[in-house]
Amino acid sequence: MNEMRRFESKVALVTGGNAGIGKATALAFAREGAKVVITARREPEGVAAVKEIEAAGGVASFVRADVAVEADVVRAIEHTISKYGRLDVVFNNAGIEGKNGPIDTLTSADFDETFAVNVRGAWLVMKYALPHLAKTKGSIVNNSSVAADMGLAGTTIYAPSKGAISTLTRTAAIEFIKSGVRVNQVSPGPIETDMGARFFGSVENMRGFAKSAVPSGVPGSSADIAAAVLYLASPEAGFVVGQSLSVDGGLIAQ
Ligand SMILES: NC(=O)c1ccc[n+]([C@@H]2O[C@H](COP(=O)([O-])OP(=O)(O)OC[C@H]3O[C@@H](n4cnc5c(N)ncnc54)[C@H](OP(=O)(O)O)[C@@H]3O)[C@@H](O)[C@H]2O)c1
């Protein structure tokens, strides 16, 4: 089989790249030739992800950065430019499920925590990446969720945070395309990751949900999302601007 190398000589930044969907996507970018900068808070997992990429013949580095901390976001982008000299792709993936449940069990601190990471964090990454992406005519792929498109009880903080990402994708897409930078998003359905298991209580519960509510009958994998992210970031998607690609086994199509 012909190996695709769509990101040869490109540089990709993956936030939340030390686990789950972000890690799978970082590995996929590296396999296709990109130098990858992984950011997240947990250093050992970050270093392990870099080692995995290097063992597969790729190039990567890890920067410990909390997207809720503006100075960390600035440092991660500065690291990328000083180490690799350019930035072509951002996968704005870092996110938390935060606290979920009936609204009377949730606090304003719970609300602020989730929005600081999922919304303000993604916004900060876009803000500081834009000048560098404008130079390379690069692209941003945000990570929303089907939670933004369905009324799922118990998600009055998480779902609106992902709804904000969907709106941010569209507004930034129109603003940034003037600089030649494309912005799109993936919108995953239930995906088997640590977060997926936490969100549903266990992997078994997630599979049970998928069996009853998802037309495909099964949850997706991180690799399913990585493939969609690489497409949106690739030259093949050069005329795709401000779009959301649901990768959800048919959940939202119903
Ligand atoms: N799994 C699903 O079913 C699903 C469905 C729809 C959308 N999504 C979205 O997909 C994205 C990734 O989720 P996942 O399932 O891969 O979850 P995961 O396995 O829990 O991974 C989350 C990643 O985000 C990082 N992260 C969390 N808070 C951060 C912060 N403040 N600053 C920097 N990095 C941070 C984590 O690393 P550290 O903890 O080390 O910081 C980790 O790398 C999220 O945005 C999530 O909302 C997931």
What features would you highlight for this structure?
254 residues, alpha/beta, Rossmann fold, seven-stranded parallel β-sheet, 8 helices, 7 strands, 15% strand, globular, binds NADP nicotinamide-adenine-dinucleotide phosphate
What does this protein look like?
By secondary structure, the protein is α/β, with parallel strands linked by helices. 46% of the residues lie in helices and 15% in strands. It has a seven-stranded parallel beta sheet with strand order 3-2-1-4-5-6-7, sandwiched between helices. α3 runs parallel beside α4. The N and C termini lie far apart (35 Å). 46% of the residues are buried. Bound molecules: NADP nicotinamide-adenine-dinucleotide phosphate. NADP nicotinamide-adenine-dinucleotide phosphate (NAP) binds next to α1, α4 and α6. Residues 15-16, 18-22, 40-42, 45, 66-68, 93-96, 117, 121, 143, 145, 188, 190-191, 193-196 line the site of NADP nicotinamide-adenine-dinucleotide phosphate.
Q: Are there runs of 5+ residues with pLDDT below 50, and where? A: none
Q: Count of DSSP E strands?
A: 7
Give the class from helix and strand content and strand pairing: alpha/beta
CATH topology: Rossmann fold
What's the mean pLDDT score?
97
The H-level CATH homologous superfamily, spelled out, is: NAD(P)-binding Rossmann-like Domain
N-to-C CA distance: 35 Å
Bound molecules: NADP nicotinamide-adenine-dinucleotide phosphate
Number of helices: 8
Shape: globular
Please give the order of strands in the largest beta sheet.
Answer: 3-2-1-4-5-6-7
Rg of Cα set:
17 Å
Number of domains: 1
The helical percent reads 40-55%
Biggest sheet features: 7 strands, parallel
> What would CATH call the architecture?
3-Layer(aba) Sandwich
User: β content, as a range?
Assistant: 5-15%
CATH class reads Alpha Beta
* H/E element sequence: EHEHEHEHEHEHHHE
